[in-house]
Amino acid sequence: MRNITLFFAVMLLSLLSQNLFGQEGYKREIEDLKTQKEQIVQQEKEALKQEVKDINRRMERGALTSEEAKLLKAEVARKRALNIENRVAIIENKILLVQRNQGQLLTLTETDSIDGSRVRFGIDIDGKRAFSFKSRRHDREITYDRRTYSDFVFAIGLNNAIIDGQSLDDSPYKVGGSRFFEMGWQWRTRVFRNSNWLRFHYGFSFQFNGLKPDDNQIFVQNGNQTTLEEFEFDLDKSKLRMDNLVFPVHFEFGPSRFRETEKSVRYSIQDQVRFGIGGYGGFNLGTRQKLKYSRDGQQVKDKFKRDYNTTDLIYGLSAYAGYDGVLLYVKYDLNPIFKDAVVEQRNISLGLRFDL
Predict the structure, then answer these.
(1) Is the dihedral of CA 321, 168, 242, 244 positive or negative?
(2) Cα–Cα distance measured from residue 252 to residue 199, given in angstroms and rounded to the nearest whole number
């Protein structure tokens, strides 16, 4: 009999302690909910301050009139007031629910709003997590102020050489037959925070500069000198091609169209006039000469991949101007084409550039 009495006493103490701790638990939960109410009000007020600052900045830039700014401020103030009212009502209803059930609640779903990147689904029993799993959200936040864009670039046009002591009219290379081709990738970054009149362009490009000699001549490498000499057969084609990898850098100027919404700030140069000036530096990847001629009634094609004493380091100046993505493009190598040449030659190109 004594053992039975002791057993029931222990059980009674256990139930009392569980009830006491349970009451303390849900009371703490209520206090936490009341704290959340205060945090909600403060959070919405801070968000309203930021929105008002953004509206004022837009008005200072001339994107909004004072009357439009006043209407927008009233609109965001109304939105934040409704947010406070709705969010606080949710917390107050939860407080009533916890009080009525003394913390003994079943929760089917719960959204983790701390980092905003994951959602947790599960079941809570008596305030304790029974099971759950997390899922990463697939919606990605839009960049509010996008300052950097990228484009594929290619250019094509005429190529030639400026020789010391001679004019371009005296060039030994065919004007129409000597051509260049360039393709690469560039990044365009707005320099100033609240203006897009100046942009910084940078990237990489592959340049292919071709020279076609006149008067049945070919390039001949004699030691450290490369010269033009007449070929023994009648040439159908003679061409020297220099392949370069360069890293262009330009400062670009020109107007742009400004657009700002609640989610983004954008500056567009589409359908705008623009021009840029800068330079490039890089390396010569290889040089080759192609010959096509007839010998003994047979068509012959020769390809020679040699050094031809071409300069290893490439550097020069370049500029462009045009409308939208179609631009007139000029580039000029400051390095000589051939190392240690008696008379220095420098490559020059003129053509069209397309930013896609």
Answers:
(1) negative
(2) 5
Last residue of a domain, one of 86, 117, 140: 140
Last residue of a domain, which of 70, 101, 132? 101
Structure tokens at 136: 């990463």
Do residue 191 and residue 326 come from a single domain? Answer: yes
Task: Identify whether the C-beta of residue 314 lies closer than 8 Å to the C-beta of residue 244.
Answer: yes
28 and 160 fall within a common domain: no
CA distance 133 to 53: 40
**Residue 208 contacts residue 243 (beta carbons within 8 Å):** yes
- Distance (Å, whole) CA 190 – CA 149: 9
Secondary structure (DSSP) of 288-351: EEEEEEEETTEEEEEEEE--TTB-SEEEEEEEEEEETTEEEEEEEESS-SBTT-SS-EEEEEEE
Number of structural domains (the chain) is 3
Domain hosting 187: range is 148-355
Pair 329, 160: CB distance under 8 Å = no
pLDDT band at 264 (very low <50, low <70, confident <90, very high): confident
Integer Cα distance of 306 and 221 in angstroms? 9
Q: Do residues 240 and 124 both lie within one domain?
A: no
Output b/e per residue, 100-109; b: 16+ Cβ within 10 A: eeebebeeee
pLDDT in tens, 186-241: 999 999 988 899 999 999 999 999 999 998 999 999 889 999 999 989 899 999 99
The verdict on 343 and 202 lying in the same domain is yes
Output the pTM of the full model: 0.60
Same domain membership, residue 67 and residue 153: no
Q: H helices of the chain, where?
A: 2-60, 66-101
The two beta strands, 273-295 and 265-268, are unpaired
Q: Which pLDDT tens digit goes with each residue over 306-331?
A: 889 999 999 999 999 999 999 999 99
Q: Tell me, yes or no, whether 84 and 175 share the same domain.
A: no
